[in-house]
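Lecture 7 notes: from sequence to structure.

We start with a single chain of 227 residues. Read the sequence below before looking at the structure.
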Amino acid sequence: MLVGYARTSTVEQVAGFESQLAVLVDQGCTKIFQEQVSSVAKREQLELAIDWCREGDTLVVTKLDRLARSVIHLNELVERLESKKVNLRILGLGLDTGTPTGRLMLNLLGSIAQFEREVMLERQREGIAKGKALGRYKGRTATAMAKTSEVVAFAAQGKTREAIADELKISLASVYRALAAERSKRPQQASLKHKEALRHSDQVRPSDIDSSRHSKQKTWRHLEELK
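Now the structure, written as tokens:
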């Protein structure tokens, strides 16, 4: 079965949208999913199209940019389709993953995607190294751990870990990490208080000792006079 997918970025692109639908019908697509959204937005109809496809089906699009944002994104979609044993046909490229030539073209595109990713990561590492050298790179802010005090407060109120995660919009694992970090602080705080008490006890002034001795001597003299 041929399943079509058509997309335009805006509702104003009526002519381009109708052209895609006409081509998909001419290709023999018996089920067509269509939407008018940006390529970076959530595409519900594309997800429905992939879910609709069954083993042996072929997903058909007119052009590559109607389906994927990049070569990397294309490979991700192809992996999902292949896991369901569904082929992909891109008419503008003459690519059909159900044929040996189509699979060869896809492998070439995959190699390009891997190359793009490695170049991107290399540039990212260079940028981070340069930022560190200039003292500008601080790393990503730990947003979840910044809410530790709120996590502890909710836990003290008796809320469940799941409820805390939902309330603060953080993962359940972050809740457990925050509570564990707070528990690890308690022995350290107790130890610091103990050390502080010992430090104060060691700092008894000689004048305090002399005053105590004088008070005891005065008491003994008073007792002697009473005898």
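The chain has two domains: 2-115, 141-190. Keep this in mind for problem set 3.
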